[in-house]
Write a structure and sequence with these properties.
Chain A is of the alpha/beta class. Chain A has 14 helices and 12 strands. Classes of the chains: A alpha/beta, B alpha/beta.
């Protein structure tokens, strides 16, 4: 359904490890790569604890990632350094073992150190650079305007005032705010002591907008956009039902005019009827505002209904990635098959016959010799497999 | 199929600051043996309240306004808390929504599973003896009253009773010894299994220590009834084992082999036939010894039966028969008197204008008469006469309460309305509303009181009419069984390690791998699905008849959800459980349910088999639920239900769903629809089914989906 092929978000070899003390590490997300195109909904599914949420949170920098890169609109917004450090270690070990010469080793170390420097720079300063570039653009725009209005003193003063406020906003703008997040639990993610107006406008205030009338107007518009009414602006979160709270969460993320939304299980905590309301709302927003959505969920029928492409995760790894129709029509990876066979459908006769396929990674795969990687089995359809499995999958696809 | 549970006309409301919330309104359904009834609806539709009412664990501010929940011939809403404790968890168990909050975080899993077993066993042992003695005393009194009260006869009866009591004690001693040996045997087998398990896992086990304890324990197993028929085998195994213990340091494999053999033998021994100690006890009491030579257990059982009957039981049963008959006839006479008293009370109440004082003497007379008419010698107790006093008190109290409260409420309402109107008349803005009056119809309450009286009357009249056909022989035999059961409760002791064995078996049954290791862990060490399995194991520990599952999989993800559902289905088939399954996920319902009840705003709006509900839904709310849920082939826009459920403090006058229903007609806002019958099993409460209503088709999306499902069905079959 993606109208154009422009890549909005690119995640490359994302790794997120958590320290568990005593030098042990939990590999929550391990080497995950995917793209999200402009205007597309990318679904991320998997059982709880497989790293879906961690992936989402890493992308908007709620965690500092361990290794890998995240590019947003072609610019690197997150970067980890672990892979470079590992390369240095490996080079030094190779040198000690006598596999490479001193010069080669030094060269590799210097290269990797340069990479680390760049990564840290991008990770820390991408927002600042973005702000600086915005400022420069503004300056360019207004120098021309100033010259034009040089004769008219009053006009010049007004322009200068405008320029000043715009500069303040530009200075506070961060690249990362173009990605917004909707959290899973609508109760826990809203501050109980703030009114709905405060909650929704908080981002704008932090951004440096001081015009009260403008803020109010925007809040009212957004509230109506998500199916609430103006009067709700003065209320507190506890006065709303679950579905309405989730709408407030959506309003808060949409008000910053994001280009991308990370929706972390936005409907899991809701009743069926309210689920439908929220999904319809997200669908409308996406079509009207052209927002891309990274949709994280474990309810597969909802994901199928809502997403253009789907990535299946299992224990921190992406095991299969395809368009949603392709994935449901020709699942290849055994875990995907097991997942699909567990979906309950509102059809009693079918349910009586449905047999669940169990997935046991130790029994299914033999990775002792040939390590698996994400390979493209057919155009746009990626599966985590080794060479032998790859051939099997290709044969399986061509049979259908 | 047999009805397990019957819910009739249940009405529950909650007292809150804002007013009375009517959570459940006139809900009725039946639950049959071995079936799953799913209750579906949005949150706040009263699903959970209904299930909690069945368990009698409603919140403190809940009021059960009317209705009956009949289980095993008794009304759960009327029986006392003490009786409910015996049913709750034992006969009716519940799996809660959130497994984490229904487990104790600082108690080990094993302790949580065995806790109820041990506690229950302790109380049973205590009460068993008390009930035995009480019943024996009643029997003695009735025996004397039935024959004659001269001194010689009393002496004779006392002697018979004493004999019965003494040989029972003798039997208990024997049974106790047998039970102890039996338990030790099971424990030893379990200990050996545990050790071998660890040994196989290559963990460090001190085989020598285990072997010596096993040798010591084997001595305790030597009970002649337990080892009957196994003596030689046992001695051989024991000797071989003792010999291997000596060489454990040099040849551990031999010890392991012997251990396995002992464990196998013990399991065989423990599953052999149990001797009838009631009979053997009498033989020992008479002859002072219990030496039967080499007879097998079944031979002893048969021989002792004849011996007991010839020497004692025939006479005893004859006496007992007279006593039972006498007590029954007496109670029938007293029931006739009680009926008169109740009828007097009924006329007083029916006439109206009664006060607490005016009916006090009549009420006391009726209650006393009913109390006197209870036949204490019946082993099976009926509930109507036992609960008569409490239910009468409850209904009367409510009547008197509202008799005083209603006028007060009227006055308050009038006062507030007047104040409000006065303010408006003065042209002020009034930003508060008058709290609507809560008036309870006294006539309805009166009919409830009469209902209690009528129930008792019907029950008694039935009993009196059938008095001629009662089989007193059967009651006498039942009574002896009752004595035996109570007596053996006293000596049935569940030790910690026996409970542990049962718990491990149970954990294995619900699919927890390596239960021996898991047994010692804390809840936080388990994943969501495993935790839910533990909760299921706890619920199943008492082997219940009815299992209530309150959204057991809502918090879990698809794969684990599928596992849990399969588990519940498997257990249901194995144990013939009846399941009440509460959920809002229609996919799960299609998987689990035999029958489905759709609830909205405290009422059942549609009721039918799973096929009825999914292939030919009739109520607009069911349509809305189905069309708001995407399946794998849905591409069109979902039809969300607009608006929110109504505020149940002020329930709407007509159909509760009318406000959100695009098919609503004028009558939906004016009058509540009755349940219309669509087929034998399918009912729905919507005016659309009225013959005069215009014909309306379900939304296109649902029709398409049903079409698709049918097509898939055909392609699958053909």
């Amino acid at each position: 359904m993606a109208e154009n092929e422009e890549v909005l978000l690119r995640v490359e070899h994302l790794c997120q490890y958590f320290s568990m003390g005593a030098g042990r590490e939990l590999k929550a997300v391990d080497d995950v790569s995917f793209d999200v195109k402009k205007g597309e909904v990318f679904g991320l599914v998997g059982e709880s604890g497989c790293g879906k949420t961690t992936t989402g949170r890493s992308i908007i920098r709620l965690y500092d990632i361990t290794s890998g890169n995240v590019y947003f609109k072609g610019k690197r917004v997150c970067a980890g350094v672990r892979s470079y450090k590992n390369a240095i270690k490996a080079a030094k070990a190779d040198f000690k073992a006598g596999k490479i010469t001193k010069e080669e080793c030094d060269k590799i170390v210097a290269e990797q150190k340069e990479q680390i420097k760049l990564a840290i720079h991008d990770h820390k300063l991408s927002d600042k650079e973005y702000a600086v570039s915005l400022l420069e653009e503004l300056k360019k725009e207004y120098t021309a305007k100033f010259e034009e209005a040089a004769d008219d003193r009053e006009k010049l003063l007004a322009l200068k005032k405008e320029f000043k406020s715009k500069c303040r906003i530009a200075k506070n703008t961060k690249m990362i705010t173009k990605i917004q997040m909707i959290f899973q639990d609508p109760i826990a993610s809203l501050d109980p002591r703030m009114t709905v107006r405060d909650i929704i406008s908080e981002g704008m205030v932090i951004n440096g907008i001081t015009d009260k009338a403008y803020i109010d107007e925007t809040v009212y518009n957004i509230l109506e956009r998500v199916g609430l009414v103006r009067e709700h602006a003065g209320r507190y979160p506890h006065e709303f039902s679950g579905g309405q709270r989730q709408r407030i969460g959506i309003a808060r993320s949409v008000v910053m005019k994001p280009e991308m939304i990370i929706a972390d299980e936005p409907v899991s905590a809701l009743d069926v009827s309210i689920q439908a309301q929220v999904i319809n709302l997200l669908n409308d927003l996406r079509h009207e505002l052209g927002i891309s959505i990274l949709f994280i969920a474990h309810d597969l029928s909802v994901v199928k209904y809502f997403s253009d492409r789907i990535g299946v995760m299992y224990f921190g790894k992406m095991v299969e990635l395809a368009t949603s129709d392709e994935l449901f029509a020709h699942p290849l990876h055994p875990y995907t098959k097991s997942l699909l066979s567990a979906i309950p459908l509102p059809d009693p006769e079918y349910e009586k016959k449905r047999k669940r396929i169990t997935y046991n990674p130790l029994a299914e795969h033999d990775y002792s010799v040939d390590k698996p990687s994400l390979r493209e089995v057919s155009p746009g359809h990626f599966v985590q497999c080794n060479q032998a499995e790859f051939e099997k999958y290709v044969a399986e696809l061509s049979k259908n | 199929m047999r009805k397990k549970l019957e819910v009739q006309d249940l009405k529950i409301s909650f007292r809150t600051q804002a007013g009375q919330v009517q959570a459940v309104r006139n809900v009725s359904f039946d639950l049959f043996e071995g079936e799953t009834l799913a209750i579906v609806g949005e949150s706040g539709s009263g699903k959970s309240v209904t299930s909690k009412a069945i368990m009698k664990i409603l919140a403190g501010n809940a009021i059960v306004e009317s209705g009956k929940i009949i289980y095993d011939g008794r009304d759960l809403l009327k029986i006392s808390e003490e009786e409910m404790v015996r049913l709750r968890g034992d006969k009716i168990a519940m799996i809660f929504q959130d497994p984490l909050s229904s487990l104790n975080p600082i108690m080990r899993i094993g302790q949580q599973i065995t806790e109820a077993m041990l506690l229950k066993n302790k109380t049973m042992r205590k009460t068993g003896r008390m009930e035995f003695n009480a019943m024996l005393k009643v029997l003695r009194d009735n025996m004397i009253a039935a024959t004659s009260s001269d001194a010689e006869n009393v002496k004779k009866i006392d002697e018979v009773i004493k004999t019965f009591d003494s040989f029972n004690i003798e039997a208990l001693n024997l049974e106790n010894a047998y039970n102890t040996a039996h338990t030790t045997a099971i424990e030893t087998a379990t200990q050996i299994d545990d050790t071998l398990f660890l040994h196989e896992k290559k963990q460090k086990v001190d085989l020598k220590v285990v072997a010596t304890t096993v040798v010591n324990r084997l001595k305790k197993v030597e009970n002649k009834y337990l080892l009957n028929g196994f003596e030689e085998k046992f001695v051989d195994a024991k000797n071989a084992f003792a010999a291997s213990v000596g060489t454990v340091a040099t040849n551990p494999e031999e010890t392991v082999k012997c251990m396995k053999a002992v464990s196998e033998l013990l399991k065989e021994i423990t599953s052999a036939e149990k001797p009838n100690f009631f009979r053997i006890g009498y033989y020992k009491f008479k002859n002072g010894n219990d030496d039967f030579g080499t007879k097998t257990i079944s031979e002893i059982n048969a021989e002792m039966l004849d011996y007991l009957n010839a020497n004692f039981m025939n006479d005893f049963i004859e006496l007992e028969y007279q006593a039972v008959k006498y007590a029954y006839m007496q109670s029938i006479e007293k029931k006739k008197v009680a009926l008169k008293r109740v009828a007097e009370l009924r006329t007083l109440i029916e006439a109206g204008n009664f006060t607490k004082k005016s009916i006090a003497s009549c009420r006391k007379a009726a209650v006393d008469a009913v109390k006197a008419s209870i036949d204490h010698l019946l082993p099976v107790k009926s509930s109507t006469d036992y609960t008569f006093e409490s239910s009468l008190k409850e209904e009367l109290d409510r009547y008197f309460f509202y008799e005083i409260k209603n006028p007060k409420e009227e006055a308050r309402f009038a006062r507030q309305t007047a104040k409000r109107e006065a303010l408006i008349a003065r042209g002020k803005t009034v930003d508060w509303k008058v709290v609507p009056k809560h008036i309870v119809d006294l006539n309805e309450l009166k009919s409830h009181i009469l209902g209690v009286l009528d129930d008792l009357k019907a029950n008694y009249e039935d009993l009196i009419a059938n008095a001629g056909t009662v089989d007193f022989r059967k009651i006498s035999v039942d009574l002896i069984d009752y004595f035996k059961e109570k007596a053996s409760l006293v000596v049935y002791k569940i030790t910690r390690s026996l409970a542990r064995k049962q718990a491990i078996d149970l954990m294995e049954e619900v699919g927890i791998p390596e239960p021996r290791i898991r047994f010692k862990q804390y809840p936080f060490e388990f994943s969501g699905g495993m935790r839910q399995r533990i909760v299921i194991a706890i619920a199943l520990a008492a082997n219940p008849d009815i299992l209530i599952c309150d959204e057991p999989t809502t918090a879990l993800d698809v794969t684990i959800q599928a596992q849990i559902l399969e588990l519940i289905n498997k257990l249901k088939a194995e144990r013939k459980l009846s399941v009440i399954f509460i959920t809002h996920d229609l996919g799960v319902v299609a998987n689990m349910a035999d029958r489905v009840a759709v609830m909205y705003a405290g009422k059942i709006v549609e009721y039918g088999t799973a096929n009825d509900i999914f292939y030919s839904p009739a109520h607009p709310y069911t349509w809305a639920l189905l069309s708001s849920m995407p399946d794998l082939d849905t591409n069109e826009k979902l039809e969300a239900i607009p608006g929110t459920p109504p505020n149940m403090i002020y329930p709407p006058k007509g159909d509760a769903f009318a406000e959100r229903n695009k098919y609503a007609m004028q009558i939906d806002f004016e009058e509540q629809p009755p349940l219309f019958r669509i087929s034998e099993s399918h009912y729905a409460a919507t005016w659309l089914l009225h013959p005069d209503a215009p014909k309306v088709d379900p939304p296109k999306m649902i029709l398409d989906r049903i079409e698709r499902m049918k097509k898939k069905e055909e392609t699958d079959n053909g």
